[in-house]
Amino acid sequence: MGTRHGTVLVTNSMLESNHISVAEIHAAAEANTERRMAIVPLEDRLRGMIDVDAMPVGFESPFLVTYDREAMGDEASVLGAPKVLASLKAPYYVIPSSTHELLFLPKSFESSVENLQHLVSEVNAEVLDAKDVLSNNVYELDQGRFITHEAGSGLAKHFVQE
User: Fold this and answer.
1) In angstroms, rounded to a whole number, what is the distance separating the alpha carbons of residues 75 and 72?
2) pLDDT score for 17
3) pLDDT of residue 77
4) Which of 6, 10, 44, 97 is most buried by a 10 A CB count?
5) Order of strands across the sheet with 156-160?
6) Backbone phi, then psi, for 44, in 5-degree steps?
7) How far is residue 65's CA from residue 59's CA, in Å, rounded to a whole number?
8) Is 108:142 a contact under the CB 8 Å cutoff?
9) Residue 74 neighbours by CB under 8 Å, 6+ apart
């Protein structure tokens, strides 16, 4: 029988009965995510999904995308892998393309958060199934620090990932 994947709600009573602390289960989940997840150039990911001969010659994209080495389909879980995110040295916009993956765009490529917010909202409304929408927000990742731009508010909220 193959490996099974899924999500389990872990309750305090489950932790207590198995003598596991919240810190231990969090560390195990983080380590598992870090073991599985990578951030790769978009064209590398596309080569694994479509016929290489169908790609335009010399195709290059400024985007990076999350990749789950075990093909579990929850590639947005990289948000729970700070060591993987820390591998990105340049400042990036983090674009939640769906619950299945995140896109990373160098900030030097696009200067307008508003343009990106509009694009994300439009794709979410017109292309994705509602169950696949992760967020209408665009985030920034710079030196381990996330900045979130609330769609339509013009406000930025900062939070530091430890």
Assistant:
1) 7
2) 92
3) 65
4) 97
5) 37-41, 64-68, 101-106, 92-98, 138-142, 145-149, 156-160
6) -65, -40
7) 15
8) no
9) 68, 99, 100
HSE-CB for 95 with a 13 A CA cutoff: 25
Q: Which residues of 38-65 are buried (b: 16+ CB within 10 A; e: fewer)?
A: bbebbeebeeeeeeeeeeeeeeeeebbb
Provide the pLDDT for residue 3.
Answer: 52
> What are the phi and psi torsion angles at 55 (to 5°)?
-80, 140
User: DSSP label at 131?
Assistant: G
What pLDDT, on a 0 to 100 scale, did the predictor assign at position 31?
Answer: 81
**Cα separations (Å) of 145 from 91, 133, 135, 141, 161?**
10, 23, 18, 6, 6
Backbone angles phi, psi at 5, to 5 degrees: -125, 150
Please tell me the total number of residues recorded for the chain in this structure.
162
Q: By three-state DSSP, how is residue 98 classified?
A: strand
